[in-house]
Amino acid sequence: MKSAVCTPDSRIALSCQIGAVKWLRWNADQIAQARRQPVAFGGEKLPISFLKHADEQTVLALWTVLEAIETADLQDRSFDSWGVIASPSFFGRLSIAQSVRRYHQEGAWGISPQLIPHQSLHAMSGTISQALRIHGPNFGVGAEPCAGPDALLLAAAMLYDGQLPGLWLALTGYETEWIPAADGQHPTAPACQALAVALTPDENASGTRLRFGSAGPQAEKESPLEMSPAFSLELLAEEMSDPCRLPEGRWRLSDSHWIEFEAVLGVEKNLS
Fold first, then answer.
1. Residues facing residue 6 across a β-bridge
2. SS3 250
3. pLDDT digits over 110-153, tens only?
4. Which CATH class is domain 17-206?
5. Could you state, in order of their start, the residue ranges of all structural domains in the chain?
């Protein structure tokens, strides 16, 4: 990945367009309700059981992507050849804890074999790919807290060679760590946040441009992705979606990589 992103002759390694952005914050009841709702895309509805065994972060991530599509008026666009990168936080911890408790109470009959594939690191990106009928690459990244910088670096590497027409990036995480109670009670899960971003090759369209850089001066401010998860996703969504209030300076992803945002007014194509 580093060989793809780092270029010795230029500090700007890649520029891409932010085509859609959506941030959601849902509690456990909202996620449970969304799980039971039919998922529709491209005029087709998926089976009502599509999200039955999905992790809570997967449910929220998918609905965030769907709302991003609706907000950006991309319902008629095909994402067939796009890629998907999903970066959850402590993925599967809540579902596994609940399943272990059911196993102790009900035995093996209380556990579904669907638990394993739906709690793997790539389950979130795979679910989004299925819902949007995407046949491009999809990867789960990190799963530890604040893995967003790793996901952004992987997004840069995947877009660098120009083979993908676009990429969906989904970042999720609970506002506080969910810890099962020692007395066996089922505490209420904390609120969960999700950020969905559509990245496309830079075509000088009006909106917000995301630029990835390497080497050179260190980032001038700490990345919001390294702050408390309670604020980072919302802050990043606000700054990506409003070209009029973009942050100044570079935002550090690692010791040698950074991102910066730029408002683009758009360039008219010469048709003559």
1. none
2. coil
3. 777 666 776 788 899 999 999 999 999 999 998 677 677 888 88
4. alpha beta
5. 17-206
